[in-house]
Amino acid sequence: MKRWSIIVTIVLGFGLFVLGCGNKANSDPSGKADSAAQKNNGEQRNFQRGKNAMGGPGKRPRAAIPVEISYIVPGDISDYLMYSAALETEQTVTVYSQINGLIVKMFVEEGQWVNQGDSLLQLDPREYILAEQKARVEYDKQRSNFERLKGLKAKELVSDEEFETARLNVKQAEIAWKQAKLNLEYTTVRAPISGVIGERLVNLGARIQPSTPLFTLSNLAQKIVKVYVPQNEMAKVHRRQKAVIRSDVLPDQSFEGWVKRISPIVDAQSGTLKVTVGVRDPKNVLKPGMFVNVHLIVDTHQNVPLIPKTALVYENERSYFFVLNNGVAQKVELQKGYEDAEKVEMKNDLPVYTPVVVVGQNGLKDGSRVRVTEVRRYAWQTDFPEKEAQKIKQLSRRPSEVPQKAGERPSRRPQKRSGN
Question: 226 and 121 in one domain?
């Protein structure tokens, strides 16, 4: 038993000896190893701070974001009721023939302007010429017979009944002759109104009936749009009310209009009132059948600050825009008044001619540095700061010099040196 105690004591002592040697080898009595580790950690922290500040090792601060701007300008804007419908003409007719016949000649084609009474097509007239000649002969015969009986009547050699029959035969023959002449005239189909041939519905050589449609004819000088106004908005509509007509096909153009007629009857099924709006299109740009938007103007605010609608950024039912202040974009929540398809009335306490970002704003944050690449002017901006726009255009041709955030050094691009 004593022998085993001695063996255990020797083993434990040897283990403690080995453990003590290991701790001594890993320790540095002078503290140099700990100092070196702390130095390395400090250098790594300093390197990381420099990396974050410079955008990465050996890199400059982030460049300014390129944007396009416009300006808040004064102008007029209206509140309106908007409806959509197809453009029509006040006068559009379908041309028919009065008689049967074979088409032997066409005088007009689609898109051609014609005046009232102009020839449109010609039917084969030979049959109608013969019919007119036959009716004329019969009329001459009945008239000669009546003249003969008139002489006999004066001598009381003809009864009253025979004389009256002869008179009526003359009248009937005259009517038949006039009908034959009229049918002969109908062999030439003429325009019932002045206008443009919208569609030709028959071809040369076709045999037509009075029920056969031949042409559609439209007077493009008088264009209208029929819109249907809900009965709860009918109080806002009145005759001669101003309107603006626009089409998605012609986004940069608008056309004047006015309320021409208002139906006195409300449709019981739809609960709407038909309103006919006249359209002024002196250059004949709009075409019948085009889908247009009609803006019935209810009220107008004059000389108020207007901001381009392209400048807006939408977040959760709120609208924002960015103004430019010494090369820095500042985010502003819009206080909105009236608006239309191109512009919005701004009620924020900002002066007119404040530059606003209209392109590139979706990638901006409040305080982002920006560089102006272009100044946009919209067609509705009649009042525009041209001198300020030219100044910004000139500055955009060279690197922007804008204030940096606190603690950052100003970034400057190296200037190219000319070779000696």
Answer: no
